[in-house]
């Protein structure tokens, strides 16, 4: 097998919702009340929901920029690579990066719809959830069903309506839902609460994977003086806490068919997490009274939890400890960690020496099975490889040069290492300018 022969499916990518997202999906009852993209006085694009203004770009959409121009820019659509918000341009960018399939997470509504939880009118909020899902499934994914894996959001403020929305989206071909790793951060019940049972039941009965994407990594920065490098380094392993919280919850034992995915969490830390859980079971199980039905915590974890990585040599070395059938690949387009347009080169350095059967599982077969998604009823395998997709991009002349004249600079005023407080000060200054 050569690098060009790989078939890549990414289970963690993102988009910036276009201003037209609700044009075809606003119920007449709520006309004039749905979110709208507005232009601030400083020229930034933001979403207005009720009386709130939500910005959702920054490091979330910097693909195609020079490394020294990342910072917390951009702030407007015209500062983004078009593939961030235009589905046709996105497919071109997937082709040039050798990516066949992609599961995309939201932006302005929050990674799992958290930005809608604060809305006073919950009926309106639920209507927005449904409209967002219809756009995502029917328009974004529907434009290229052989290229996109649908992933819905749910009204977390009502678990019964959330379960109903799961069933509605499954009927439309969606088998993934984005859910907050720690719902208590926005005032909702924890993973250990029976509050969520209607949702868990709907997901388990309909083969829906619950994606726990990093949405709050505040603990990754111990202080305001912490360099931003440390924060970025620590973000992925923040899901270590989620992994153990989930494994020790009742969910995986009470719902034997339920499946979760740790999205954008990488995999190198997973063997240690499982080993530590088993050690805790051995040393403390007599008094903590956890009942795993005769199994080890690590065994329960492997039965129910999927993982993914961008670049993780340690995880690949320990792939059998993690579970070769549980590992998937992610591109993370258009975030700052994205290796676009050279993702296959980096991945091949890590996978090239392992058996072809294992490469295929990691690069696409596991993802296809997990998310009940089969692109090969619409595209031939020989047309889905890294080499074939890149040849198509070359024939179309897809531009991969750095974006020029789009602004953006690191938020450091003294040219020293960028710290957490530098980032917050830049964001605060930007918002202050908007209000002037």
Residues in β-strands, percent: 5-15%
Secondary-structure element sequence?
EEEEHEHEHEHEHHHEHHEHHEHHHH
Number of domains: 1
> What is the percent of helical residues?
25-40%
Biggest sheet, spatial arrangement of strands: 7-8-9-10-11
**What general outline do the C-alpha atoms trace?**
globular
Radius of gyration, whole Å: 21 Å
Report low-confidence residues grouped into runs of 5 or more.
none
N- to C-terminal separation?
59 Å
Please provide a brief summary of the model.
The model has no long low-confidence stretch (mean pLDDT 92). The protein is built from 15 helices and eleven strands.
Fold and architecture overview:
The chain is globular, with a radius of gyration of 21 Å. It has helices spanning 87-96, 122-143, 159-171, 197-205, 228-235, 239-248, 251-254, 270-288, 297-304, 313-317, 319-322, 343-351, 356-370, 386-396, 420-435, and strands at residues 8-14, 36-39, 45-49, 52-54, 99-105, 148-149, 176-179, 209-213, 259-263, 305-309, 327-329. The chain has 15 helices and 11 strands. With 436 residues, it is α/β, with parallel strands linked by helices. It has a single domain (3-435), classed as Metal-dependent hydrolases (TIM Barrel), CATH 3.20.20.140.
Show the helix and strand layout:
Blueprint: E1 8-14, E2 36-39, E3 45-49, E4 52-54, H1 87-96, E5 99-105, H2 122-143, E6 148-149, H3 159-171, E7 176-179, H4 197-205, E8 209-213, H5 228-235, H6 239-248, H7 251-254, E9 259-263, H8 270-288, H9 297-304, E10 305-309, H10 313-317, H11 319-322, E11 327-329, H12 343-351, H13 356-370, H14 386-396, H15 420-435
Parallel strand pairs: 1-5, 5-6, 7-8, 8-9, 9-10, 10-11
Antiparallel strand pairs: 2-3, 3-4
